[in-house]
Design brief:
The chain has 212 residues and is of the alpha/beta class. It is globular, with a radius of gyration of 18 Å. The protein starts with a helix and ends in a 6-residue tail after the last strand.
């Protein structure tokens, strides 16, 4: 996923670009974005973000302030998609870009809630229906690989409970499973992964209003 995000960031980068990470968490991609010369700001509901997200889901930010809106593994946790996308549209400048990733398939993982998963078709329809023109959608990790990763997650959780050696065994098991998943992903036909991915990374453009 990081490689796909890096590719998209490189495509949209230009001097003076300002990006807002809408649900930044611990900011895992800040360095990647800033390495392209983009000014990065993070927004979240707690912690010490640059921009606060209110209890109603709105951003403490002016209209049309940002060139790039980032949303990485956030959308599945959002209860009110209408507000989330409305705020994304509000703070983007005309023609601004939305770089978004979310799950096609994964385990339930509340933070603090976990509401949905998407098919590729459903995610693209969601973006279009909320005022964005999708430029590209990239699938990450096909079904053979993600089933292996999910099984290894369960095994690792079990092994970590074993005194003394559990953590080491869990690490070895995870390493082996990741190697197997890479091989499985390599042999999975692209057309299968396209509609059955663990994660989708999308780049969209803010759709013009009234033809402008």
């Amino acid at each position: 996923m990081r490689d796909e995000i890096a590719g998209f960031v490189g495509r949209v980068s230009r001097p003076g670009l300002v990006a807002l990470d809408f649900g930044c968490g611990d900011r895992p991609y800040q360095g990647l974005v800033e390495a392209e010369g983009i000014r990065y700001l993070g927004a979240d509901i707690d912690g010490t973000p640059d921009i606060a997200i209110g209890a109603d889901g709105t951003l403490d930010a002016p209209d049309a302030e940002y060139d790039l809106l980032l949303s990485f593994q956030v959308l599945e946790h959002v209860r009110d998609l209408d507000t989330y996308f409305a705020e994304a549209r509000r703070v983007l400048r005309p023609g601004g870009r939305l770089l978004l990733s979310t799950h096609g398939t994964w385990l339930y993982h509340p933070h603090p809630e976990d509401h949905r998963r998407w098919t590729r078709e459903g995610l693209l329809a969601e973006l279009t229906g909320h005022g964005f023109d999708v430029i590209e959608c990239r699938p990450v990790v096909g079904p053979m690989a993600w089933t292996t990763i999910i099984r290894s997650t369960g095994v690792a959780h079990f092994l970590r409970a074993i005194p003394a050696v559990g953590r080491g065994l869990a690490n070895l098991t995870t390493l082996a499973a990741n190697g197997r998943a890479r091989l499985e992903d390599a042999v999975t036909p692209a057309w299968i992964t396209a509609d059955n991915a663990c994660v989708y990374v999308t780049l969209s453009r803010l759709a013009p209003v009234d033809g402008r």
